[in-house]
Amino acid sequence: QVQLVESGGGLVQAGGSLRLSCAASGRTFSNRIMGWFRQAPGKEREFVATITGSGSSTNYADSVKGRFTISRDNAANTMYLQMNSLKPEDTAVYYCAARTSYSANYDLWGQGTQVTVSS
């Protein structure tokens, strides 16, 4: 069973950068499609980015395209989200999640890490 732990959140000024990490335990990390989601206060959780098991394919929400980069290091069992040109509207709790290639549902979630962008 894979367990996920996020880190790297914090407070940053608008225009700044942060890098989030998602450390996974377990032996099946490289088999999992991984994703980042976020939830702002009073809003529904929304998709941010996803990456295939090999890392060869990625996809982004329009709101972060060109500013955020998702990546993974399967040897280190870790996924990353590099966030540049941050905006106040990026403020949210960020979650990493994992799913198998034969399911559309993310069945593993981390506890979340807070990102706050001040204007």
Described by strand count, sense and barrel closure, the largest sheet is: 7 strands, mixed
**What value does the Rg take, in angstroms?**
13 Å
Poorly predicted residue ranges: none
**CA-based shape:** globular
Q: What is the ordering of alpha helices and beta strands?
A: EEEEEEEEEEE
Judged by helices, strands and strand pairing, the structural class is mainly beta
Q: What share of residues is helical?
A: under 10%
The N- and C-terminal alpha carbons lie at a distance of: 40 Å
Tally of individual helices: 0
Number of E-state strands: 11
Nearest-integer average pLDDT: 95
Tell me what the structure shows.
- The chain has 119 residues and is an all-beta fold.
- It has no helices and 11 strands.
- It is globular.
- The mean pLDDT is 95.
Task: List the SSEs and their pairings.
Elements: E1 3-7, E2 10-13, E3 18-25, E4 33-39, E5 46-51, E6 58-60, E7 68-73, E8 78-83, E9 92-99, E10 108-109, E11 113-118
Concise overview:
This protein has strands at residues 3-7, 10-13, 18-25, 33-39, 46-51, 58-60, 68-73, 78-83, 92-99, 108-109, 113-118.
